[in-house]
Protein 1
Amino acid sequence: MSEAALDEVSVLSSIYCGAGEFQLLQQSAEDGVLLQINICVERERRLDVSLSFHLHPHYPSRPPDISVSSTGLSRSRCHNIRQKLLEQAATLPPEPMVHQLVEFLQECVELTEDCKGDQDGVEQTVGQEQWISVLLLDHIRSRNCYIGLLECWTQQLQLTGMLLLGRSILVILQGAKPDIKKFCRLLKTVKVDVDSSGKKCKERMMKVLIETPLSSSCGYGLKGFVVKNYQSLSELTASFQELHLTELYQQMLPSLRDWQHAGSHGD
């Protein structure tokens, strides 16, 4: 990372110093910096907006990747705001720009337009069929960092999801199939966790248990990105039932049991 980028991170943490305003999710020479800024925009009503910035190793010569999420704005509105921020970033000189982009959001974007939220938990992308996938993760040791990255990626890729933590670590994802594929690719190419020796590592052992087009009668319980712990198989089953995904669960259960059986006999 450039010295200018590291200095900017320090400055941002000082500017956005309120409770929960600034969070540094990841920092490495190889992958760059991932940070999140949560702000409140006051217009006709209060709107809490979460902005995630991925500063690449070549930043600020290369503009940051940006994701936008808000419980008070529809998914399409968040997507439109993200596009405006990316367009604005492309017009700025190659120097630290995150604070300018946050100010641009607060001053120039009409956030109050279309503030209906996501009543159904998912907003279908025009021309793209909605899919649902269940991923099996190998381990989560650096919990806060790992979960922060998963949540950031779902926001960035306009996915909804749930992380289930128990004997098996499962991620349920819902959204456009290409975006789910991008999520899986990020898991295997970005250092998201640490290994048993404490060294940063990628999720190379991730397995897709099932992926299928989303039925109109299921899956609409997913909203945003939720983390849930379970203690038993019955609690895991209940979690899928609450999401109206019982049939999907039954289809993936043999693959899950095969993995658990192999794990119990492995090293």
Note: Residues 111-127 have pLDDT under 50 and may be disordered.
Protein 2
Amino acid sequence: MRKFKGVITSVFTVGLIMGLGACSGDTDEAAVKKETQEEKVNEALAAEGEKVVKSSCTGCHGIDLTGDLGPNLHNLSLSKEEIIELLIKGRKTMPPGTANGMEEEVAEYLLTLK
């Protein structure tokens, strides 16, 4: 009977390890796929945002966005949400509504600037 319990325990342990290993592999693969899809969406948003920035922001922030009348827009320490709020509400000499409903796209683009 003891020998039989040891075999059952071993089989159960091996099965549990294999089952958990299979599950974790699927989860990692799904997470990587989801992350890749999100990056594609972000790239698409950033591309749209770049168009808005080039037509609306370069007059004050300079052609290369490193600053002129307005501040440098590279390496911003603001979050995406803070940038969106700033674009909607404006701040100091920056007028509100300069992104014309494309705030998320502009924020995505600005966050890519290094």
Note: The first helix runs from residue 2 to 56.
